[in-house]
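Could you please consider the sequence and fold following this short note?
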Amino acid sequence: MKRQRGSYPEKRTMNLFYKPDRTTKPATIALYLLFAFTVLLGLSKVLVYDLWVETQETQRTLALSQSRLEETMAELADYEQVLDQYHRYAATEEEEGIVDRMRVLRLLDSAIGTGPRLDSIAISGDVVQVRVSGVTLAQTARIASTLETSPIVEKTVVTTASTTEAADQMTAGVHIYLKKEGAE
């Protein structure tokens, strides 16, 4: 076998196509300038306009908050006077543990009723002293048992019982021991 000589590619023609450079024409320069302007416009929106809008909105929020603060401070201008009145009329820690006096009076009114006469009431702390006249021993026992059924009464003690002119009518002294307000 004969060895053939290797064939290599050969160029036998010449390419004479010439592409002119258009980058120097005014239209190309205008396109580059338009592209640069568009990029700058996009960056200015992000870097300038958005920050400016956010600043304006924050300033509006600040102005609104400051006006609310001024209104609140105007409302609190007499705070010291209100606090003094509160301390004057509010219950102290000692008074908070005391049973409501109006509740005690309603209890006595319902327990004693209309027949007997209530001569005196003395309330000191959690002890109530009551003097009732025009009652019988049975009525006194009924009054004491009625008082003891109340949730605010711890116990009752009839201390004195004395007769008046009528043999069946007498005067009774009753000590009522109240429960502490939190102990119900």
Q: What stands out?
A: The beta strands are 117-124, 127-135, 153-163, 170-178. The mean pLDDT is 84. The longest strand covers residues 153-163. The radius of gyration is 51 Å.
